[in-house]
Amino acid sequence: MTSLYSLSVTDINGNTVSMETFKGKTLLIVNTASKCGFTYQYEGLEKLYQQFKDKNFVVLGFPCNQFGAQEPGNEAEIKSFCDLTYRTQFPMFSKVDVNGENALPLFEYLKSHAKGILGTEGIKWNFTKFLVSKTGDVVSRFAPQDKPESLASKIEEIL
């Protein structure tokens, strides 16, 4: 069976990154978008990252254009937006699909280990969040409307 750490992703600069890099860290993996009603959550995600990064916590942002075409830019534009608008320091990755036949294997893994409402796997919108333990277990799935700051106590529980 595939493990989270056997997967690879591409960072926003085009470099291949093994998920093994994040072994031993608690992760919050989020599909993001720059032109979404939830885009303000970048601020809360960055606050969580700053609050817990010294305790081996990392936020991983994956831009996605599958919902309302709310991430139309290329990687350079996305990186610039995040840097200039929200001063994000957590790792960002290349634009991905999270649903469908071209879905990133990482999101296929996350969805199969933390189902949504009524047992559905499909991601419904931007800023769906997956909390992963330092051993690679998918602990929780959070809806787009769940604000990052509301996740702090759940993160603290598993750090």
3D structure, described in words:
There is one protein chain. The chain is of the alpha+beta class and 159 residues long. It has one domain (4-158): Glutaredoxin (3-Layer(aba) Sandwich), CATH 3.40.30. The chain contains four helices and six strands. The mean pLDDT is 93.
Give short descriptive properties of this protein.
159 residues; alpha+beta; Glutaredoxin; four-stranded mixed β-sheet; two-stranded antiparallel sheet; 4 helices; 25% helix
Class by SSE composition = alpha+beta
Estimated helix fraction: 25-40%
* Mean pLDDT across residues: 93
CATH level 4 superfamily: Glutaredoxin
Low-confidence stretches: none
Largest sheet, spatial ordering of strands: 4-3-5-6
CATH fold topology: Glutaredoxin
The Rg value, from CA coordinates, equals 14 Å
Tell me the span between the first and last alpha carbons. 25 Å
CATH hierarchy class name: Alpha Beta
- Please indicate the count of domains: 1
Examine the secondary-structure arrangement and name the CATH architecture. Answer: 3-Layer(aba) Sandwich
CA-based shape:
globular
